[in-house]
Design brief:
The chain is 71% helix and 0% strand. The chain is an all-alpha fold. The chain binds fe (ii) ion.
Length: 158
């Protein structure tokens, strides 16, 4: 079976590629925010939060490659630059000088939930269009990972 790979942005896969590219923009945004908080967190739980945020940032970053390469393999294009990310991101940056640790966790919990929602949206699109994008070792894993992460943040934030 041959996959015609040059009808970007149109057809069933085009919509899915676009959704995955927005998802990637948010994952990179969340990655940088987690590193930001990892570097700037302070207070009595410093070590615990510092390590947690680094571990979760690495998990997010590790997932981006799987998603981007899946899009490419199926003929789409995806994130090209920081500027591209900034044009697409839905998660907001946080450039505030001092953020309380509890506020960091609450914000990350919110952001993680947004990303889980975006992943579910992509899943629904794939189901609707019977697309192979999520099958055969696609991006099912990251949803479970993000759900686990949101639970971990939720437990610490409460
Ligand atoms: Fe570090």
């Amino acid at each position: 079976m041959t996959n015609t790979s040059n009808h970007l942005g149109s057809g069933s896969n085009g919509e899915i590629f676009n959704a995955l590219t927005v998802l990637l923009a948010d994952m990179f945004t969340l990655y940088v925010k987690m590193k930001n908080f990892h570097w700037h967190v302070s207070g009595p739980h410093f070590r615990d939060y510092h390590l947690l945020l680094d571990e979760q940032a690495a998990q997010i970053f590790g997932t981006t490659d799987t998603i981007a390469e899946r899009v490419r393999k199926l003929g789409g294009t995806t994130i090209r630059s920081i500027g591209h990310i900034s044009r697409l991101q839905r998660i907001t940056d946080n450039d505030i000088d001092k953020v309380a640790p509890a506020d960091m966790l609450a914000e990350l919990l919110h952001d993680n939930r947004l990303i889980v929602g975006e992943m579910r949206h992509v899943h629904a699109l794939c189901d609707e269009q019977d697309s192979a994008i999520l099958r055969t070792r696609g991006i099912d894993g990251p949803i479970a990972m993000l759900n686990t992460k949101a639970d971990a943040l939720s437990a610490r934030a409460s």
